[in-house]
């Protein structure tokens, strides 16, 4: 087992730079998730670690080996893709053992490695089936099994659950978590889904436009985002943002009848434009007629989400426990406490602390 270290990694496709100097240390045995919107460079970065894409600049280490220019086969990695890419004419057992067979590993050893992977992934009952007789989730387990039998130092996953329906996705997410607990290998997992990132990761790397926005544990990112992008990306529904202006040591919020909010941060000069951020979970609907209009109410049973529009045409989502009694078009009032508010510069979108 080994950790992975990236030093000032860059990638250009001709003149188009898609990765801009990534520095990152992934510890041995860590479950690291790269998350970010489509096109931000997650797959490119993962494929560079796998050796499937050339690295334009910087250096890359797996354990203490410099693998920047090493062949994929020399890196000690196994990769699992969104498409399972199983051989249709081979059984589950043959699919899992095929890579070892190609490497002339003795038959008995292949058999015992496949048996071990099959036990971990609960595939024992399916070993003699062909892929077409398996569900999507089972096929993806075979693909993961194929990665396990190679005994890699580092597992790489590129959106492995994206082809599965919602229910199976949750089930496989739990499986992958269990797999990591059981074999304890270093894993790097790419997804655009922040829920997957939050539930699987020891360490989340939030990427945007080929740059790291923030690195931290799920709760560090949730509780202490460095910028508006991370604050809005992590958490569901996303954090609410309202425009404000710094005035006389407080923040004036036009959307909330020019309320003045005093915050325990080092405020910039009066006149500076800012955003305040408050999570839907930290806002309460209060009784009495307000000037916020109820746009949509989503009832999920245990919780409801109430979407409000302010007189300034900004939006606020409130999460409320249990059922909600708000009706479309009615007026509402909200309250939240200042200790739940985070502040961002409007221009740079960086956190003001
Ligand atoms: N072979 C390629 N040639 C040119 N541009 C590419 C190539 N592969 C990816 N890109 C570009 O690199 C950026 C990052 O892509 P990708 O890593 O696939 O994003 P993600 O996996 O985060 O959705 C995108 O703008 C994409 O269009
Ligand atoms: Mg991708």
Task: Using brief descriptors, characterize the structure shown.
2 domains; alpha+beta; 353 residues; binds adenosine-5'-diphosphate; binds magnesium ion; elongated; Rossmann fold; six-stranded antiparallel beta sheet
How would you portray this structure in words?
The chain has 353 residues and is α+β, with helices and mostly antiparallel strands. It folds into 2 domains: 4-232, P-loop containing nucleotide triphosphate hydrolases (Rossmann fold, 3-Layer(aba) Sandwich); 238-352, no CATH class. It has 8 helices and 21 strands. The protein has helices at 42-50, 92-102, 107-121, 136-149, 166-183, 194-200, 218-223, 228-233, and strands at 4-13, 16-26, 31-35, 57-62, 65-66, 77-80, 154-158, 186-191, 203-208, 211-216, 240-247, 250-253, 259-261, 273-278, 284-286, 292-299, 303-309, 315-321, 331-335, 342-345, 351-352. It has a 6-stranded mixed sheet, sandwiched between helices. β11 (240-247) and β12 (250-253) form a beta hairpin. It is elongated, with a radius of gyration of 24 Å. The structure holds adenosine-5'-diphosphate and magnesium ion. Residues 13, 16, 18, 36, 38-44 line the site of adenosine-5'-diphosphate (ADP).
């Amino acid at each position: 087992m080994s950790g992975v270290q990236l030093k000032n990694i860059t990638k250009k496709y001709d003149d188009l730079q898609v990765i801009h100097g990534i520095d990152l240390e992934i510890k041995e045995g860590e479950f690291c998730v790269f998350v970010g919107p489509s096109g931000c460079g997650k797959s490119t970065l993962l494929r560079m670690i796998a050796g499937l894409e050339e690295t334009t600049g910087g250096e890359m280490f797996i354990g203490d080996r410099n693998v920047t220019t090493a062949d994929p086969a020399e890196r000690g990695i196994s990769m699992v893709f969104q498409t399972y890419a199983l051989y249709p004419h081979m059984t589950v057992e043959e699919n899992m053992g095929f890579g070892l067979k190609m490497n002339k590993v003795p038959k008995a050893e292949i058999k015992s490695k496949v048996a071990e992977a099959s036990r971990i992934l609960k595939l024992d009952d399916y070993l003699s089936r062909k892929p077409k007789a398996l569900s999507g989730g089972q096929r993806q387990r075979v693909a993961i099994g194929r990665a396990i039998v190679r005994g890699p130092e580092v597992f790489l996953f590129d959106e492995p659950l994206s082809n599965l329906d919602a229910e199976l996705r949750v089930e496989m997410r739990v499986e992958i978590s269990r797999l990591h607990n059981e074999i304890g290998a270093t894993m790097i997992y790419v997804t655009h889904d922040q829920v997957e990132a939050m539930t699987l990761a020891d360490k989340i790397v939030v990427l945007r436009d080929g740059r790291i926005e923030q690195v931290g544990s799920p709760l560090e990112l949730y509780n202490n985002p460095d910028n508006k992008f991370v604050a809005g990306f992590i958490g569901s529904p996303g954090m609410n943002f309202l425009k404000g202006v710094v005035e006389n040591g407080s923040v004036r919020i036009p959307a909330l009848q020019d309320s003045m909010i005093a915050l325990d941060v080092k405020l910039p000069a009066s006149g500076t434009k800012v955003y305040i951020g408050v999570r839907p979970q930290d806002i309460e609907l209060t009784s009495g007629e307000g000037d916020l209009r109820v746009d949509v109410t989503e009832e999920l049973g245990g919780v409801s989400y109430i979407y409000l529009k302010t007189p300034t045409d900004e939006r606020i989502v409130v999460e409320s426990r249990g059922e909600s009694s708000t009706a479309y078009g009615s007026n509402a009032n909200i309250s939240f406490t200042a200790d739940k508010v985070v502040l961002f510069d409007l221009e740079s979108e960086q956190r003001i602390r």
